[in-house]
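Quick start: load a record and inspect it. Here is Membrane protein:
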Amino acid sequence: MTARTALVLGATGGVGGAVARRLAAEGWAVRALHRDPGRVRRDEDGLDWVRGDAMAAADVVAAATKAALIVHAVNPPGYRDWDRLVLPMLEASIAAARDSGARLILPGNVYVYGREAGPNPGADAPQTPRTAKGRIRIAMEDRLRESGVRSLIVRAGDFFGPRTTANSWFSAALVRPGKPVRTVLDPGTPGVGHQWAYLPDVAETIVRLGSREAELPPFAAFNMDGHWDADGRQMIAAIARAVGHEVRVRRFPWALLPLAAPFWPLAREIREMRYLWREPLRMSNAGLVECLGHEPHTPLDVAVRETLIGLGCLRDAG
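Running the structure step on this input writes:
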């Protein structure tokens, strides 16, 4: 039997890499687009690295030939110039989906929701963003709705996992990759919950949904529950259990971000995201559970331990 083919854009990133590896493990033939495949580490089991630029529609269309799924998990380098680059990149994937007939999958996030969505927004809750990236995310989702291509959006909380990139709060604030954990830099507010998503669980969810093509409407969107840290202290406690000792907790220096903005363009956008650490916003996965029966869910202690090992913060004792 010929393996089903999937094209993954952003396979060197956290979400894209996790989805690509999970697809390969499930028997899919996985093509991974990259501008310079020769620079990519070749330990990505079962991936066929294809030369191409995610901004070039012709490259994406060619790479997507006979694909059943296209995973659009690519972002501008260094997360810069989102307002200029994100939508043109998505247009290239839309063109490829239209040409190949593939379902286009977009990993989404909580940024599309503001206070008006309520504390437990479902997949169809009002989208009233409070950040620049939230507005761009909504524009991406709207473009998929109006494009006519079969689309799937899976929204999740803040990512963590063994190959989490530096753009994750977990690896950019809570811990320092490659260093033993002695201090945690906490951006949260005591007593306020926060939603996390373990990358292998996100990948498993996307792959399961992508394998149910006959059951999905032309445009489908689902929210994941992931790991809900009800009081903002469960993730730190899990880190301490994983390393086997108490960790010092320091507050994230939110007050310094305005001073850093002239020298660090992302400072303003990071400051905009503070509402997610000051107000409880827990996306509801009711629609996902109705579709799959349950949400893939790795126990928190297992997920945190695997994440710390993968980030080089903890030795694997076997």
